[in-house]
Design goal:
The complex is a heterodimer. Chain A is mainly α. Chain A is built from 15 helices and 2 strands. Chain B has 2 helices and 2 strands; from the N terminus they run αββα. The chains are: A mainly alpha, B mainly alpha. At the A-B interface, α3, α11 and α15 of A face α2 of B.
Chain lengths: 342, 65
């Protein structure tokens, strides 16, 4: 019976339409490889994974909020703000123009990481409070937070002794930790990828094997029914926002060292990459639907397309148009799934 | 929320299944897609059109610009 239903043309069409974006992105990759066979190299693959890592961690945070039926437009700017703080605390102590000249001995790496997480969590608590207790629409509250985070970053970077300048010349312990690789046979696996996998594993367990995860899906699916069945919506929403903040903090700490020089533009549009990666990976804007492997596949696919378009020297402005269209297609497919279910 | 959606009511099932709360009825939450004025078939055409547009933009980007 199952076999016959799988061969049903109707089912096949459903599957094709529902996975249209992944298929199209796969076809795009085939075209890229035909045009530039050199694209298929372990080095490129490793670069793509490393670039996707910080966005992947960010996307895991945002995906949970989308499953709740909301979103977070401030994630990119929060990342920029926390990256600036991490970088300023971990500049080389031999660098004369460092942000904190009073730090003469390198701080342990976990201190800036914790500071970064604390700041990101503070922003997320602000967002979560607005959504859970003031019933504000997530678009509005996170749009406001986006501007607050951006303004804070500009002021922070601008208040250096020598005026506004990139936060660079980072401590070598920091950059080695983030940019380092594990040698596995002929492959070099970036530390960033391992950290992404650890974060994904933790998030997977929370989403699938804890009461909080079940509550998250229930609240996203139907908040009224979830409330009636005894779920405390406010506290659960707050905890999920705080979890997202922790992930933003980790991503910020890693991103600062990955790019090596932090300016006010860091984090610009990162939230769109994370949101579109999540949607491509099957997280539904209608709420209540989404998986961790889906988010990872979506983010890596999107990053691969970004990387390949740059590799092919496609006009960078046109890449924005491609990304915009990808988001619209992803949302259209998501809406179609909703209509088909109804 | 449209008038139609206000009228839709579903019995609530869940952890408090045996309590008095099961007697309550609650309106279905509005989804972001609740008011879409399209059928599934129309959405198929829209998605097809968008994919062709995406392919065209990529073609222009890779081979022309």
């Amino acid at each position: 019976m199952e076999k016959t239903s799988k061969l049903n043309p109707g089912n096949l069409k459903e599957k094709l339409v529902n996975n249209a974006l992944i298929i199209i992105l796969g076809l795009m990759l085939v075209v890229v490889v035909i045009i530039e066979p050199g694209f298929l190299s372990i080095r490129n693959f490793s670069n793509i994974l490393a670039q996707a890592s910080t966005r992947g961690i960010l996307a895991l945070g945002i995906a949970a909020l989308i499953i709740l039926g909301g979103t977070d437009l401030s994630a990119g700017r929060i990342l920029g703000c926390c990256a600036a703080i991490s970088a300023s605390l971990l500049q080389s102590t031999t660098y004369a123009s460092r942000y904190y000249p009073q730090i003469t001995k390198g701080l342990p790496l976990f201190v800036p990481l914790l500071v970064s997480i604390a700041v990101a969590v503070a922003f997320s608590i602000f967002n979560g409070f607005g959504v859970a207790f003031l019933n504000l629409h997530p678009f509005i509250i996170t749009l406001g937070t986006q501007l607050i985070a951006f303004g804070s970053t500009c002021i922070y970077i601008d208040s250096q002794r020598g005026g506004a300048q990139p936060l660079s010349t980072l401590d070598s312990r920091y950059t080695n930790f983030v940019k380092g690789t594990f040698d596995v046979g002929f492959m070099q696996i970036p530390h960033l990828v391992v950290i992404l996998l650890i974060c994904a594993a933790v998030v997977y367990i929370i989403w699938n094997h804890t009461v909080l995860g079940k509550n998250m899906y229930a609240l996203g699916g139907n908040i009224e029914a979830a409330k009636v069945s005894g779920i405390n919506a406010k506290s659960n929403i707050m905890i999920i926002y705080i979890m997202a903040g922790v992930l933003y903090g980790i991503a910020s700490f890693l991103e600062a060292a990955r790019i090596g020089s932090v300016t006010t533009t860091v984090g610009f549009n990162y939230e769109f990459d994370a949101i579109s990666g999540s949607i491509i990976g099957g997280v539904s804007f209608a709420g209540g639907i989404g998986t961790v492997p889906g988010v990872l596949v979506g983010v890596i696919m999107l990053q691969t397309i970004n990387y390949s378009l740059t590799y092919l020297n496609v006009n960078p402005y046109l890449q924005y148009i491609v990304k915009g269209l990808l988001i619209i297609v992803a949302v259209a497919i998501d809406a179609r799934k909703y209509l088909a279910k109804k | 929320m449209t008038e139609d959606n206000k009228e839709k009511e579903v019995p609530v099932q869940g952890a408090a299944g045996n309590s008095e709360k099961t007697q309550e009825k609650h309106s279905v939450r509005d989804s972001v897609y609740s008011n879409l004025p399209f059928t599934v078939k129309q959405m198929d055409w829209i998605i097809g059109g968008l994919l062709i547009l995406l392919a065209a933009v990529l073609f222009v980007g890779i081979f022309i610009l």
